[in-house]
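Example record

The entry below shows one chain as it appears in the dataset: sequence first, then C-alpha cells.
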Amino acid sequence: MATCWYSWPLTIIRVLMGAFFLMEAEHQLAEGYVGGDGLEQKLRKGIDTAIPPYDWLIEHVFLKVDEPLTLFVIAGEMAVGAALVLGLFTRFTAIVAIVMNLNFLLMNGLHIDSGGVDAAFIVGEVLLIGYAPCQALSVDGWLARRGVSAWFLSGEPAAR
C-alpha cells in the first residue's frame, strides 16, 4: 500500500461517508419505511424537486415499485456504508455509492441544502476511487499486503 501524506484524510472521508450511509439506513428502518410508505412519500415530494426528466422516472417507474425499491435502497445503503467504513472493495463500493448519490442528486435537485450534500459525496467518492491505494486502515490494504489485488479493491499488492 502506498503511504501518502493524505492517507488519513482520505480514510476519515471514507469512514464518515460510510457512517452517513449507515445512519440513513438506520433512520429509514426506524421510521418504518419497510412495510410503510416512507419511501413513497419521499418520492412523491421528489417529483417537485427532481431535475427533468427524472421527475417522470420517479412518477412512472419508481413509485410503481416503491415497496421492493425500499428494501433495495436500505440494503444498498447498509452494504455501501459498511464497506466504506471497513475499506472493503473500496473502488467498487465508491462506484455503487456514486450511482446512489447521483440518483439522490437528480431527485433532490441542485438545492444547496440537499443536492449540495449529494454533490459533495460524489466528489468524495471520486477521490476514493482515484486515490484508493493511499487509504489507511482498510481491509483492502490488509489484503494487498497479503498479495491479494483486483480492480475493485483499493490496495496495491506488496512488492515481492
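Notes for this example: The CA atoms of residues 35 and 67 lie 7 Å apart. The chain has a mean pLDDT of 89.
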